């Protein structure tokens, strides 16, 4: 959908990405969502804001894609009737976002058929909403009963298997209920929200320059993506232009984060399919990447390297030599391991046709990131809307159409090799100059939005500045919001023992979808 086709006035939001913002009324909310969807657009994020402390009501915000970039729409909602129209029938991924908005803010999306709590888990009373300004952040509440109404599947021979929320491995908690006949899965229903840490409420007590530390810890495997998205939003709110060298270094960090996560997942995918050799080799390679991160940038997972105004450290000649050497080593070893994976009949038997998501289903339900590209959805912010320096790097997008575990493995291999090429180009062409500047004090009410293609998919951070440089509201959005529901579909018709393999092929974030 073109910007000029929107029936509301849109104004550009300052920043590195093409973002337009406008205010709509309840009558336009669903109409605009339908128009965006009919033109091939997607819902990227949905969240709520409390403005009662400023004498206003609540607001519902939605970020949707358009042909020219991202459209950020705001729907004012009165305190007396905190409701908005449901759009989950248009964008199915909105279902959980709307339910979370009610749990946290008390604004209900009406017109749908699913009002079950998503994040609350009886950890606070039903009449209390943590993201309202009147809610005391330090308040404690007795634990209540969480009688969540799971969908029941009946019939002869149907059994229910409950897995979690506490798992045998050192992973985050999530509850999965399988309805099965024998080992064949008829239905999977997820229950998440067990990692709730009050991150969005915590932002409201911080200064804008300090919030990047918390943003980088929303989901620990995506610290670069979140930190960059947060800084992009803060720099837009302050009308600040980041030094070019700092932007190239940020891209180097982002690609190294992508490489490290793909290497780790490729190893675990091999292991889940019975190829322990793959786990050993890819774990070794990932460890080498993390060690060089520590030597070159001061942190294995690159935390606190991206800061408002630029980056906290530069690379010297020794680090540059180490990066070039590792890039070539990884190219050779990953290419060799890809050949082993591709030619291993036992491994391919487990990967091919497992956990398939068709391109049609992926498009309908809003699958994104590497999983979306493995199901034929050609979307990568580094290609569609490339910020500096990606506009000068000619990124090759990795896509596949089969949508199964094998396709997601193939996309990971191809993205590792492409990221290595990007890292090589960045190191060779890194411009001279400053790596950091000082942000001017932003005006109260200033807004910014950051939009970054992380290794898992699009990471979005929207913020509004309060008085004296404080944060009035920050919403951080993980691509896992969109992809968790697709996992429920991907496992249907597969056998229960294949679930760990299918799950790992997505490798979604629990914390990122639980703020």
Give the helix/strand layout.
Elements: E1 11-12, E2 19-23, H1 26-38, E3 43-50, E4 58-66, E5 69-77, E6 83-85, H2 94-105, E7 108-110, E8 158-163, E9 175-181, E10 184-191, H3 199-203, H4 211-215, H5 223-237, H6 244-272, H7 276-297, E11 306-307, E12 310-311, H8 317-343, H9 345-351, H10 359-365, H11 369-374, H12 381-384, H13 405-429, E13 447-453, E14 458-465, E15 471-477, H14 480-490, H15 499-506
Parallel strand pairs: 2-5, 6-7
Antiparallel strand pairs: 1-2, 3-4, 4-5, 8-9, 9-10, 11-12, 13-14, 14-15
Helix pairs in contact: 5-6, 6-7, 6-13, 6-15, 7-8, 8-13
Can you put this structure into words, describing what you see?
α6 packs antiparallel against α7 (276-297) and α6 packs antiparallel against α15 (499-506). The protein is built from 15 helices and 15 strands. The mean pLDDT is 95. The longest helix has 29 residues, at 244-272. The chain has helices at residues 26-38, 94-105, 199-203, 211-215, 223-237, 244-272, 276-297, 317-343, 345-351, 359-365, 369-374, 381-384, 405-429, 480-490, 499-506; strands at residues 11-12, 19-23, 43-50, 58-66, 69-77, 83-85, 108-110, 158-163, 175-181, 184-191, 306-307, 310-311, 447-453, 458-465, 471-477. Helices cover 38% and strands 17% of the residues. The protein has 515 residues and is of the alpha+beta class. The chain has 3 domains: 3-110, Beta Polymerase, domain 2 (2-Layer Sandwich), CATH 3.30.460; 157-194 and 480-490 and 504-515, no CATH class; 206-479 and 491-503, Cytochrome-c3 Hydrogenase, chain B (Orthogonal Bundle), CATH 1.10.645.10.
Short description:
The chain has 15 helices and 15 strands. It is of the alpha+beta class. Helix 6 runs antiparallel to helix 7 and helix 6 (244-272) packs antiparallel against helix 15.
